[in-house]
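Hi everyone,

Forwarding the result from last night's run.
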Amino acid sequence: MNKNIFINSLSKKTQEAVFLNAQSIELNLSQNICLADQPIQYIYFPIDGFISITQNIEEQSLIEIGMIGREGMLGAELILGINIHPFNGLVQGAGNALRIYAEDFLNAIEKNMELKMAVKKYLVIRIQQLGLSVGCEHFHTISARLAKWLLMSEDRAQSPTFQMTHEFISLMLGVRRVGITTTAADFKRRGIIDYHRGEMKVLDRTALKAEACSCYLENIKIYTNLIN
């Protein structure tokens, strides 16, 4: 039906019943698609764009705690009876998504057991990935985290080339920009990545995976174990 893996994991009957009237929208780079403590108006299913889930630490500081691309959805918390966004959603990769009114999606969940169970499973995945993210930020080096983050971005962009600045990466990883610049320069010198004027390109994915912390593969394992 489309390139969103979550939707395609559902039966054709459920897809047609729930997503027939979904709107196709564009995700614009750096767009604040939702804000913490604000009502959930829409549920989003990225197709080829992706969204950073961020947490405010102080008034002027935030950090990425998760990433949602074509493997998932934004707004799964709705199934818990919570109609307020717990985190911010910032478009990290421009692209397309399907959007459904939260009220319509909640009604569909109540009527469709397959959809309800799929959303519950996905919410468990998000919780486990959130816990993994906390440990990663505390124990792993900047270089390992940067490699993991670039791989995750490449996976969701479905392309080795995507728009990204050092400043944005440092903000998302919660580290000083100089740390990102130094590490990225080392990756570039070794032919692993290239970058120019806000465009990032992965040149050697195998080498980048060797640099990444174990959290990259663990994230994939969490998703695969629960979604199947």
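The chain has two domains: 5-136, 141-212.

Cheers,
N.
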